[in-house]
Amino acid sequence: MPATYSYNKKEKLKSRKSLEQLFANGRSFSVFPVKVFYMPVTETTDHAIKAGVGVSARNFKKAVDRNRIKRLLRECYRLNKLPIHGTLLKNKKAVAVFFLYTGKEMPEYAMLNEKMQAALIKLEENIAR
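Given the sequence above, the corresponding structure tokens read:
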């Protein structure tokens, strides 16, 4: 299987029902400034991991700033998802994940990429348990 760095429509977590269930019943941990919500999924999907990103409007009043941070989060996830994706496929598990940016200032790409890598490693460890 060639390495695909895509993040297409089928990989996105968009269902309101799934999101509400994730926030109500899912587990979470934080790798500041990224808070990660995750929950194992029992329904069969074509992708092992469905992911979404978000930014608080309380901390960033301008939609331009929120959209910029969400773009950065999606890009960091897209480039670093392969190891966890492979592990989930190998173990035949599926998970729903939501990355929430909790910082109060505009992030640099390099810092956010480093934190996303740490968050995905921690997520992989938590799912393995």
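DSSP finds four helices and four strands in the chain. Try to locate this feature in the token string yourself.
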